Amino acid sequence: MSNWAEKKLGDVLTLQRGFDLPETQRETGPYPVIASTGPVGTHNVAMVRGPGVVIGRSGSLGGGQFIRSDFWPLNTTLWVRDFKGNDRRFCYYLLKSLNLANFNAGSGVPTLNRNHIHPLPVRVPEDTYEQRAIAHILGTLDDEIDLNRRMNETLEAIARAIFKSWFVDFNPVRAKVEGYDPGLPKYIAELFPDRFEDSFLGEIPAGWRVGKLGDVAENPRRGVRPSEIKVSMPYIGLNHMPRRCIALSEWGYADSLESNKFEFQQGEILFGKLRPYFHKIGIAPVDGICSTDILVVRPREEKWFGFVLGHLSSTAFVDYTNAVSTGTKMPRTSWQDMSRFDLVLSTEGVAKKFNHIIQPIVERIIANIRESKSLATFRNTLLPKLLNGGLSVGAEVKGANHA
User: Fold this and answer.
1) How far apart are CA 195 and CA 45, in angstroms?
2) Rounded to an integer, what distance in angstroms lies between the CA atom of residue 301 and that of residue 285?
3) Ramachandran angles phi, psi of 145, nearest 5°
4) CB within 8 Å of 166: residues ≥ 6 apart
5) Which of 49, 83, 207, 355 is the most exposed place for a label (fewest CB within 10 A)?
6) Topology of 7-124 in CATH?
7) Cα separation of 292 and 272, whole Å?
8) For the chain, how long is the longest CA-to-CA vector?
């Protein structure tokens, strides 16, 4: 093991508060805007050259984000202004290893004061090759997790595009009406009609009909009492739910739950009914229990799964749930209202074919999530051991990383 030195955090790096940038002043551009919880958009100007490191200063404290590109850190963050010759990604993992949430200096909103954490004692290798080797080991795991995340984004974008083309824009039908090739294999194209007919929702494909979400989906209310909750049960709360993204990659465990919950099964759709404008939706990657502020939705028949998922993921559905929500400060929707959502029901043949396309995509997304969860667990096990010098990095690893 190389020489490790006892230092203060401020001797290793210097943190600085981020910069104001209201949403109304943001111009879409190539640079990510970074909040305490992660990227929240883009801007056409960057305030910090990448790669850089950001931690949460207000609201969500500590943690850590490694930003590869130039970026704009918001004033809810602290960013590393000076790495003082240390490896940047090593500094990212060093900050992640510290329990900075314990240094909350705010009375209402949790707040982190950089002057309170700069004096923290830390132990770091003086050899930057050792720092890079540690960062390389942990970074390899994080890179694989990030690859899975980006793959899931691509898969979801493909699924959304097909759903919109078939069931919102009716492109295959329009192609037939206008006399050009819909660009689909013949056996799929033959499933679509070659004309439209009128309905109260406007023109719809001939042979299709206007219906309700409740015609093809249901809300299984499988209640779980506190006495039935086991500590090992996966638990999903609203804080775990992603926004506008079906890849539900975070969950906890039911180790201290004292109120009734709902049971869900892997592959079922979860929808956040509280403040539905956040559009919190996800596919359950495991069996478990969830908050009663989350609705469990499943198709009445398997062939409608992709169709139901597409509608629940659509902007039109969120606009509808917002409009019918009750309450002012904390509006919420209900399954009764959701089930009355108007939609255009395709023929069973089209629904089956779409589901045949969507199911492998969903299964791949779930597999990527589960793999990333295992990788993150392994990384979190290695992190404290590598960062306190308890696990030595072999000379051959340092040499290979240097090369």
Assistant:
1) 49
2) 20
3) -65, -40
4) 172, 346, 350, 354
5) 49
6) Adenine-n6-DNA-methyltransferase TaqI; Chain A, domain 2 (3.90.220)
7) 9
8) 78
Q: Is 374 exposed, middle or buried (0-12, 13-18, 19+ CB in 10 A)?
A: exposed
Name the pLDDT band for 232 (thresholds 50, 70, 90): confident
400 has a pLDDT exceeding 90: no
Pairing of strands 62-67, 52-56: antiparallel
CA distance 65 to 91: 11
Dihedral (Cα; 320, 324, 328, 333), 10-degree rounding: -90
Is residue 20 over pLDDT 60?
yes
pLDDT digits (tens, 9 = 90+) for 316-355: 999 999 999 988 788 999 999 999 999 999 999 999 999 9
Distance CA(376)–CA(208), nearest Å, equals: 46
CA angle (205 as vertex; 201, 206 as ends), nearest 5: 110
Contact by Cβ (8 Å): 88, 65: no
The residues near 299 (Cβ < 8 Å, ≥ 6 apart) are 216, 217, 218, 305, 307, 308
* Sequence ranges of the chain with CATH classification 3.90.220.20: 7-124, 157-353
pTM (2 d.p.):
0.86
Tokens of 402: 């240097």
CATH of 157-353, one of 3.30.420.40, 2.30.30.90, 3.40.50.720, 3.90.220.20: 3.90.220.20
Most confident of 59-73, 91-105, 250-264, 362-376: 362-376
